[in-house]
Design brief:
mainly alpha, globular
C-alpha cells in the first residue's frame, strides 16, 4: 500500500512533508526496522506531528526513549 502511494499518488501531490525522511519513507523504514505493531505506532505518531503547528527537519524512525543517530555519533 505504501509503495502504491509513493509510486502513483505522491508524484501528483505538491511537496508538503515538513520532515526528512518524508512521512511515507519514514513509515516504510519504521515497518522494516520495528515490525508491524511498533511500525504502526510510530507512523501514527509521525502523522500526528506532521502538521503546520508541528516540528520540522531530520526525524528518522526510532522507538520512544531510543537515542537518535546523531546522539549515538556524539557518544562514540
Amino acid at each position: 500500500m505504501l509503495r502504491f502511494y509513493k509510486r502513483e499518488i505522491s508524484p501528483v501531490l505538491p511537496t508538503s512533508c515538513r520532515y526528512v525522511p518524508t512521512c511515507s519513507e519514514y513509515s516504510m523504514e519504521a515497518y522494516k526496522r520495528y515490525g508491524v505493531v511498533k511500525g504502526t505506532v510510530l507512523t501514527a505518531w509521525r502523522f500526528c506531528r506532521c502538521n503546520p503547528l508541528g516540528g520540522y527537519g531530520y526525524d528518522p524512525p526510532r522507538w520512544f526513549g531510543e537515542a537518535s543517530p546523531r546522539e549515538e555519533e556524539l557518544d562514540d
